[in-house]
Amino acid sequence: MKRHIVVAATAGLVIAGTIFATNTVQKAYAAEPAKKGTTAAKPAAAPKGQLPPGANAAEVYGKLTKEVEELSKQLMNSGAPDDQARIYADIEAKFVAFRNRWPNTTEANDAAFQLGAMNFGMQKYDQSAGLLKEFLGKATEKEHDQQAYAHFYLAECYKATGKYDLAETEYKLILSKYPDVNQQLNDVAKGNMQGLSTERKLAIGGEPVHFNVKSIDGKTLSPAAYKGKVLLIDFWATWCGPCVKEMPNVKQVYDKYHPKGFEIVGISLDQSRDRLDQYISTNKIPWPQYFDGKWWKNDVAVMYGIQSIPSTILVDKAGKIRYKSLRGRQLESAVQQLLAEKS
Q: Which of 7, 170, 253, 339 fits a disulfide with 155 by CB distance 3.0 to 4.6 angstroms?
């Protein structure tokens, strides 16, 4: 089985309590977030996009993948959005430089897959879809497993951009043509396909599904109550590594924009109330949280068809869904944009 580069799925999601990504990332992305007081190692001081030496494409690409794996480890240990963006840019530049130098090689096509998966992680869905379709158009039977993951990322790109019929076609293809690749991949594809009906209801421009629940401190939580505000509905859990890694950024955005009308409602998929309370207290999380201890059967999560976390829905002042699954710098940019809009 072809070994995939770690960066191929730095967009790893926690699905049904498990890290889901391509081969090596299933283990690598599960690493604990960097502890307080520690600083992620800086990338090697090579110029951005510089390729390692080698006599041919295969030799250079072999060395390049090792460099990218090291950069990916730094990416996973970094909690700072600016550092993550810088590392992403460095990795992207290396793959682009390789494809420019050896455009008609199998290695260049593999680089298209890596860039496609990486752009998905950066939420550049149109760019990701284009690269993934390029990879699939040139892939051979030798890339059977990799094709399955490419179809999955492509389905997720279509889903994220509201192209639900195309997403459904990709999910069905995974289930029919690639059942031998990875049982978890098949389970997730099946679950996501079944959740498309809910996704259609939660399309960009629509309204969030109504709920009326009590927060852990007894307050009533309902999306309708936040009209006139910019609202982030955040599905997360303390046991979710990517969620915990993203939390400092979410808190930073909240602290900066809450006085201007930005609100968050947390939907915790935790099973332990004590663990949730301790995390909220230790990290001084000020926004309300809904908790029912039902894990993936959380009442609100089920209503929203949540199959993976972190998962977010950003609602504008008029109560319309405008963005989904934003993280890092993209979350702040979107919040700033929606707050600037007239009610």
A: 170
